[in-house]
Amino acid sequence: QLGAPEQGEEAARKALAMSPQEPAMHLLLARALIQKAGGKLTDPALAELRWVLDREPAHDGAWMMLAMSADRAGRYDLAEQGWQALLSRHSEGETGDLLRRGLENARQQKSRQEKFAGIQAVVVAAGLTAGACPKRFTSADIRDVTATRIIRKVKTTPMPTSMSSRPWAIS
Questions:
Q1: Do 72 and 107 meet the contact criterion of CB atoms below 8 Å apart?
Q2: Helix, strand, or coil here: 169?
Q3: Which pLDDT value is given to residue 112?
Q4: Is the pLDDT at 135 greater than 60, yes or no?
Q5: 11-47 burial, b for 16+ CB within 10 Å, e for fewer?
Q6: Is 115 helix (H, G, I), strand (E, B) or coil?
Q7: What is the rounded distance in angstroms from the CA atom of residue 18 to the CA atom of residue 20?
Q8: What radius of gyration, in Å, describes the C-alpha atoms of the chain?
Q9: Cβ–Cβ contacts within 10 Å for residue 67, how many?
Q10: Contact, 80 vs 127, CB < 8 A?
Q11: Of 1-5, 78-82, 105-109, 156-160, which range is least confident?
Q12: What is the pLDDT of residues 19-68, one digit of tens each?
């Protein structure tokens, strides 16, 4: 469905304009923005979720959307916050077990992410010249980096770069 995320966002914005004080409309927009970003939390979606949570701190739907989309976006502090908020109200039974798994996963990913923060690397590849585009490096190319990193435009070679805990791209 070409254009579906954009159409969803447009519809959500129109609904929000008609009922700006309705939390469900803010959640609708947050969901559309997250869907448009491939399931990942964006700053505009976070602002909508915070609007809802500021007014309804026990809104499980908003907390779940925050936890799951922050997890997918690698924003593990926010994911951890979301899982903890849900777990504080739903700690019993199978639900509690699932929420604890989500929380533990966020904590493990955060720990892994922190290991890679601040790594310095110089990328040198045979046949890679200034202005080359695109070249994809994977964990096989750069030891101990688990995620695929994409270099969109190489300005110089060898190319010094810093790696952070967030996904990086050089343009």
A1: no
A2: strand
A3: 86
A4: no
A5: ebeebbeeeeeebebbbbbbbbbbbbbeebbbeebbe
A6: helix
A7: 6
A8: 20
A9: 25
A10: no
A11: 156-160
A12: 999 999 999 999 999 999 999 999 999 999 999 999 999 999 999 999 99
Asked if residues 5 and 32 have their Cβ atoms less than 8 Å apart, the reply is: yes
Of 40, 81, 45, 51, the residue nearest 63 (C-alpha): 81
In sequence order, what are the beta bridge partners of 169?
A: 150
Decide: 148 and 138 in contact? Cβ < 8 Å: yes
> Residues 82, 67: contact at Cβ < 8 Å?
yes
Tell the residue number behind the tokens 């976006």, with chain if given: 73
Q: For residue 68, which amino acid is it?
A: M
- Give CA–CA dist 133/147, Å, rounded: 19
Q: What is the pLDDT of residues 139-154, one digit of tens each?
A: 444 443 433 344 445 5
Residues pairing with 122 in the sheet:
160
One-letter amino acid at 72 equals R
The answer to whether 154 and 133 have CB atoms below 8 angstroms apart is yes
CB contact set of 167 (below 8 Å; sequence gap of 6+): 74, 147, 149
Q: Are 44 and 52 in contact (CB under 8 A)?
A: no
Q: Which of 65, 13, 69, 64 is nearest to 37 (CA)?
A: 69
- How far apart, in whole angstroms, are the C-alpha atoms of residue 29 and residue 15? 9
pLDDT at 123: 59
